[in-house]
């Protein structure tokens, strides 16, 4: 199971939705995972993310520029 999730975005509705779904997935799967949401473009670009939202699990970019839904995030977490 993953130890850390990072979500990079620009503070837009789509990015906030991915963060919300990630928190919900963590809760529903009863995971103890650190989750960090970076909501500024400067940090996003400094980390090499060019599309928002970017979804990172344990340092590995698994999705970029896509609005992931709850089921997709649960699947990513279960398969990481």
Backbone CA Rg? 11 Å
Summarize the amount of helix as a percent range: 25-40%
Q: What is the assembly state of the chains in this entry?
A: single chain
Model regions low in confidence, pLDDT < 50 over at least 5 residues? none
CATH class (first level) name: Alpha Beta
Shape: globular
Q: CATH architecture, please?
A: 3-Layer(aba) Sandwich
Question: How would you describe what is shown here?
Answer:
- With 80 residues, this protein is of the alpha+beta class.
- It has a single domain, classed as Glutaredoxin, CATH 3.40.30.
- Helices cover 39% and strands 24% of the residues.
- The protein has helices spanning 13-28, 41-46, 70-78, and strands at residues 4-8, 34-38, 54-57, 60-64.
- Helix 1 (13-28) packs across helix 3 (70-78).
- The mean pLDDT is 95.
Short synopsis of the structure:
This protein is an alpha+beta fold and 80 residues long. 39% of the residues lie in helices and 24% in strands.
Topology:
Layout: E1 4-8, H1 13-28, E2 34-38, H2 41-46, E3 54-57, E4 60-64, H3 70-78
Parallel strand pairs: 1-2
Antiparallel strand pairs: 1-3, 3-4
Helix pairs in contact: 1-3
What structural keywords apply?
Glutaredoxin, 3 helices, four-stranded mixed β-sheet, alpha+beta, 80 residues, 4 strands, globular
């Amino acid at each position: 199971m993953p130890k850390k999730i990072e979500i990079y975005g620009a503070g837009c509705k789509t990015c906030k939705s991915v963060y919300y779904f990630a928190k919900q997935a963590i809760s529903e799967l009863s995971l103890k995972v650190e989750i960090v949401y970076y909501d500024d473009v400067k940090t996003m670009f400094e980390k090499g993310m060019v599309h928002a939202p970017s979804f990172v699990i344990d340092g590995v970019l698994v999705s970029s520029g896509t609005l992931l839904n709850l089921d997709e995030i649960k699947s990513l977490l279960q398969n990481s």
